[in-house]
Amino acid sequence: MIVAPAFLLLAAHLVAASPSARKDDDWVSPVYTEIFQHALPIPPIAVPLTSYTNTTTNTTIDYYELEIKSFTAQTYPASQGFQATDYVGYAGIAPGPTFHIEQGRETVVRFINKSNSSSAIHLHGSFSRPMWDGWANDVVPPNFYKDYYYPNRQSARTLWYHDHAFEITAVNAYFGQAGFYILQNPAESALGLPQGQYDVPLMISSRFHQANGQLVSPAGETTALYGDVISVNSQPWPFMLVEPRKYRFRLLDASVSRTFKAYLLASGSTARQTFTVIGSDAGLVSTATNTTSIVLGIAERWDIVIDFAPFVGKNVTLMNERDFFTNEDYAATDRIIQFRVGNTVTSTANNNVPAALATHDLPPPQATADRSFVFERKHGEWLVNGVGFADVQNRVLAHPARGDTEQWELINKSGGWTHPIHVHLVDFQIISRTGGRGAVQPYELVALKDVVYLGENERVQVRARYEPWDGQYMFHCHNLIHEDHDMLAAFNVSDLPTTEFGFTDGNHLNDPMDARFQARPGVGPFSVSTVNAVDLPTLSATGAYANIPETIAALRQYWATHN
Fold it and tell me: What is the pLDDT of residues 29-46, one digit of tens each?
């Protein structure tokens, strides 16, 4: 793989043009001359290799295999002398295959590491048990594999899977280790929202390229890597042919450091067009909310509906706001993707957006925060309350009780920096924002989240129930440079007394480094008959995801009498 560290390339650039002298129409990468000339690629759908049904519980587990391996793709035009770009991705593509999973069907994904670097895989948005959550130290070394066991019992939502290995997440994710994982259920399907070909995942990212077309690596970078090449599903500035009807777009910011503030412009007009927010990290929002712009922080997912009916024969471009907080602007970072609206609608089915979309089961309100966490840079390190993940003895910063509600205050004291904060395990409600933008945005008010964008000098309060499991989980800044340089901490959900709570598990599934479930040597091929006869029954027998509704109900009952 031919890479150059980001700090070397950017240092050379800044010698030529200081930050005060550099203009927004500058490039660091080679000039990309084919903006909106290539069609949007759609990742293939992941297909299970086999399925196992536990005849006692009638629970089905679908089994998948994904290899982590290198590949090349022609990112810059070969006709202009550029090399094919080296990547490392799931199944040898980027984004990796998209999972479409029905709520209630469990999955086991065997990630097989054929790359040259360790990996750890996090299914972002899932309340997976700790040993399958992608704990940063629980790595899959090269030539090893690990079975990740997922519950798929939450509300329908847009999840994504990505690397989470300690200190190398930025490099692994930047080179391609990310993919969509979409959880579906009949209730959402019955709402008449756009489906099938009208439901489109858009993974947005930004990178720098070398003069030969290869990527500039984030290795060695310690502050941020914003990138000047904006890609959607790994294609720089694509276009998409659309019909004059409603489409659902699942927006995901998979960048290392760049946050987007997106808006729509139609050809021939400077007016910003309205679109509708229908979903967030944790699934459907309670009320469809119209807006003319949306902030898309790193790792945030926002599902939006765009109605192209008024724009027959026109181009509609998803733009990116310049001068938004700390993001560096470059020549074409104000554009993301162009939609070319045709003249014909081939189907009018599922072309609705109901005003009421979901009822959120919210924790009771409280006036003050239970805990405060300060995200700032100290002594050259990015830390949480002065602690980083490498500080093993002190990195567990909170011990919420299983099922209890806590309100956390997240504070950004890092002058000149922003932090998208992700809390594993839980869905939270954004309660307040002071400083910076000064308010919770209207589309945030109707959403449940697992990432919140913490702008310069902002304080945000979030409230969540720490359920359904006990054990250690992570929370961190999702600017991957900050995460790797140590703005990553942990919380330990403590279990309840066995005598008072009837669903304490006997299998001790609370240790993210549980040796029973760590990576094993081998890259296959694997015997499907052995998977069916041994591996899946063994995982199912742990009871890891048994009785989830009953467990949650018991937790609610417990806390109704213990607060």
Answer: 999 999 999 999 999 999
- Per-residue H/E/C for 452-511: EEECCCCEEEEEEECCCCCEEEEEEECCHHHHHCCCEEEEEEECCCCCCCCCCCCCCCCC
Please give the average per-residue pLDDT across 73-94, as a whole number.
98
Nearest one of 236, 73, 253, 275 to 180, comparing CA atoms: 253
- Give the separation between CA 107 and CA 150, rounded to whole angstroms: 5
CA 136 to chain centre: 16
Q: How confident is the model at residue 10 (pLDDT cuts 50, 70, 90)?
A: low
pLDDT tier, 22 (very low <50, low <70, confident <90, very high otherwise): low
Contact between 137 and 166 under an 8 Å Cβ cutoff? The reply is yes
CA 317/CA 336 separation, integer angstroms: 7
3-state secondary structure of 289: strand
Nearest by Cα to 253 from 224, 221, 231, 271: 231
* Residues 34, 321: Cα–Cα separation, whole Å: 21
Tens digits of residue pLDDT in 313-334: 999 999 999 999 999 999 999 9
The answer to whether 400 and 491 are in contact (CB under 8 A) is yes
Query: Which residue has 């650039």 as its token pair?
Result: 13
* pTM across the whole model: 0.96
Residue 242 CA to residue 194 CA, distance in Å, equals 13
Q: Distance (Å, rounded) from C-alpha 64 to C-alpha 531?
A: 10
Sign of the Cα torsion 236, 237, 242, 246 reads positive
Mean pLDDT for the chain? 94
Tokens, residue 128: 């997976």
Distance set, CA 390 to CA 355, 386, 397, 475, 484 (Å): 47, 12, 13, 14, 10
The distance of Cα 6 from the centroid of its chain, to the nearest Å, equals: 23
Residue type for 163, please? D
φ/ψ of residue 560, rounded to 5 = -65, -25
Query: DSSP for 251-285?
Result: EEE--SS--EEEEEEETT--SEEPEEEEEETTEEE
Distance in Å from the first CA to the final CA of the chain:
56
Distance CA 319, CA 521 (A): 46
Residue type, 262: A
Q: Is the peptide bond before 44 cis (omega within 30 degrees of 0)?
A: no
